[in-house]
Design brief:
By secondary structure, the protein is α/β, with parallel strands linked by helices. Helix content is 42%, strand content 18%. The chain has eleven helices and ten strands. The protein is globular. It binds 5'-O-[(R)-(carboxyoxy)(hydroxy)phosphoryl]adenosine and zinc ion. Zinc ion binds next to helix 4.
């Protein structure tokens, strides 16, 4: 039996010495890790020239969650047009690009493959570096993209449908994980509770909208781990409490206010997450906090974090909604920082659904 031999093509890539990438550096970013197809052009790591986002939300809505095979096929259809549009909006051509960055992981492997294969192909043809970006690290860069004052060291809360992570970002490429969820990610808990309440997918924005109409103190849901040492959280018990509460009320024939349940659930998440995050900031002895990821769009969390940071004299950066959810501008920005420190990826690097941050 012969060995299967496969070698990546040797491409003559222009690798400038570290430090020579400057404010004019133009990077194409590609994001296909989950259910958003996105392409963006970012200049100098900070200036977004374009950020095209094609959401698959409606495709998965009828299933109540993301179907990996459906997602991958939709990325195949949407990616090339998204790249074309991103270049057009940025008033750039392929030949203006200095590098191509794509999400390498974590994410759905079929979806990651689509973006990584396309990014490598473009980089190989243009003979520019390819950068395989960690999706979680990229979320941190969404803060750097919008706030000229934002800088490391900082604590970053990465809170999305797939992850809930508290990170001490010492500097570019240097991360220490302080805590995370022991079970469901915060966004996952939002989506599961919303589904149980019969709301549309994704449920986070729906719960957020309803909670504005409800009483956050109507139901006293548990705040798991809030008094435990450390920075970990757990949301699966909270989700079960919501389900049990609604079933109990229905069994007794008592009316259930969906608005009150939504508001009370959201308040429980916010209370726990704000407490753990501020404890992490104190522990890390930093004066900057970034709140990033899809759930950072949550109005209660934004408000709770802003209040706590003001009290603690901590500078808070929360990106605007379109940069909180998955987007390629953050991938390009993170890729530019990798260029600057010479962290190029080979064309033989494979997507990793479980790519760790640290
Ligand atoms: O970062 P993201 O776009 O994708 C992942 O990497 O997971 O985050 C999507 C998650 C979903 O769970 C969605 O329900 C949640 O973010 N989300 C929200 C809000 N907007 C999006 N959760 C709570 N409140 C919101 N306003
Ligand atoms: Zn994400």
């Amino acid at each position: 039996m012969g060995e299967t031999m496969w070698a990546s093509p040797e491409v003559a890539v222009e690798k400038k010495p570290v430090g020579e990438w400057d404010e004019e550096t133009l990077v194409l970013g590609i994001e296909t890790s989950c259910d958003e197809t996105s392409a963006a052009v970012v200049k100098g790591g900070r200036q977004i020239l374009s950020n095209v986002i094609v959401s698959q939300g409606e495709l998965h809505g009828e299933y109540g969650g993301i179907v990996p095979e459906v997602a991958a096929r939709a990325h195949v259809e949407a990616l090339s047009p998204a790249i074309g549009e991103a270049l057009l909006i940025a008033d750039a051509t392929f030949w203006d690009l200095d590098a191509v960055a794509a999400t390498l992981g974590p994410g759905l492997v079929g979806s990651l493959l689509v973006g990584v294969a396309e990014a490598k192909s473009i980089a190989a043809v243009l003979e520019v570096p390819f950068l395989g970006v960690n999706h979680l690290e990229a979320h941190v860069y969404s803060a750097l993209l919008v706030d000229p004052e934002a800088a490391f060291p900082a604590v970053a809360l990465i809170i999305s449908g797939g992850h809930t992570l508290l990170v001490h970002a010492h500097g570019h490429g240097s991360y220490e994980i302080l805590g995370g969820t022991l079970d469901d990610a915060a966004g996952e808990a939002f989506d599961k509770v919303a589904r149980f309440l019969g709301l549309d997918y994704p449920g986070g924005p729906e719960i957020d909208r309803l909670s504005l109409l409800g009483d956050p103190d109507a139901v006293s849901f548990p705040r798991a781990m809030i008094n435990e040492p450390g920075f970990d959280v757990s949301y699966s018990g909270l989700k079960t409490s919501v389900i049990n509460y609604v079933r109990r009320m229905e069994a007794t024939g008592a009316p259930v206010s969906v608005e009150d349940v939504a508001a009370s659930f959201q308040k429980a998440v916010v209370d726990v997450q704000v407490a753990k995050t501020m404890a992490a900031v104190e522990h890390a002895e930093v004066d900057r906090l970034f709140v990033c990821g899809g759930v950072a769009a949550n109005s209660g969390l934004r408000h709770g974090m802003a209040e706590a940071c003001e009290q603690a004299n901590v500078k808070l950066t929360v990106p605007p909604l379109e940069l909180c959810t998955d987007n390629a501008a953050m991938i390009a920005a993170c890729g530019t920082a990798m260029l600057r420190r010479g962290a190029y990826s080979g064309l033989d690097v494979a997507p990793d659904p479980n790519l760790p941050l640290a």
